[in-house]
Design brief:
- With 202 residues, the protein is of the alpha+beta class.
- The protein folds into two domains: 39 residues; 152 residues, Glutaredoxin.
- It is 38% helix and 22% strand.
- The chain has a five-stranded mixed beta sheet with strand order 8-4-3-9-10. Strands 5-6-7 form a three-stranded antiparallel beta sheet. A two-stranded antiparallel sheet has the order 1-2.
- The chain is globular, with a radius of gyration of 26 Å.
- The chain starts with 9 loop residues before the first helix and ends with a helix.
């Protein structure tokens, strides 16, 4: 017995292939997102790029004005050991390391040493850390003894900073070290102090 051929349902046919096409596009999109996310995670975790992109290379140009009204020009500091610290107000790790930065400034105040703090926040947002002639972070009542430069988003991008806080050690215009921050602030302080001493002798 011959089977009766059923007429082709072009509507059903179209829906089927449209669905397959949609699933293919979705999978490609998902893969792209996953790949992009993986790359970002590697950057954030320091597995690639980050500030290491500039390790042992010339530091990008940096000319700006601090909250105190002083002009800062990276190209003019010569062989002074410079700490560039990138941070923002709501970063708890950034706030936690501020006492260490204060201590370092005090430790090496007689040496050719300088700390410049680069904040993502604007001047109005940073008013909360200003207290007449001195500066303090209201949250932890930490008075800062180093200079702050506001509005540093574009500078952060030039320095490939995607994780906060991030701190660079610079001498003679070259990035010599990237100082990582852990939850152990006492250990951080010892490591930073050691690296700074090495550069001062260099």
């Amino acid at each position: 017995m011959n089977k009766i051929k059923q007429p082709i349902n072009f509507f059903s046919f179209s829906i089927k292939y449209f669905f397959l096409f949609f699933m293919l596009v979705f999978q490609i999109s998902l893969f792209a997102q996953k790949t992009d996310s993986s790359a970002i995670n590697k950057q954030l975790n320091g597995d690639e790029q980050l500030g290491f992109t500039l390790f042992k290379k010339t530091a990008p140009e940096l000319v700006s004005t601090t909250l105190s009204g002083n002009k800062f020009d990276l190209s003019k500091i010569g062989d002074t050991v410079l700490v560039l610290n990138f941070w923002f107000i709501k970063c708890t790790g950034c706030i936690a390391e501020m006492p260490n930065l204060n201590k370092l400034q005090e430790d090496f105040k007689e040496k050719k040493f300088k700390i410049i703090s680069l904040a993502l926040n604007n001047i109005n947002e940073l008013k909360q850390i200003e207290d007449s002639a001195s500066k303090k972070v209201v949250l932890n009542n930490v008075k800062l003894n180093y200079e702050i430069i506001p509005n540093c988003k574009s500078i952060s991008e030039k320095y490939f900073v995607y994780k906060y806080p991030t701190t660079f050690l610079i001498k003679n215009g070259k990035i010599e070290q990237l100082l990582m921050n852990s939850n152990n602030q006492e250990e951080n302080y010892k490591i930073w102090q050691k690296e700074i001493r090495k550069l001062l002798k260099k």
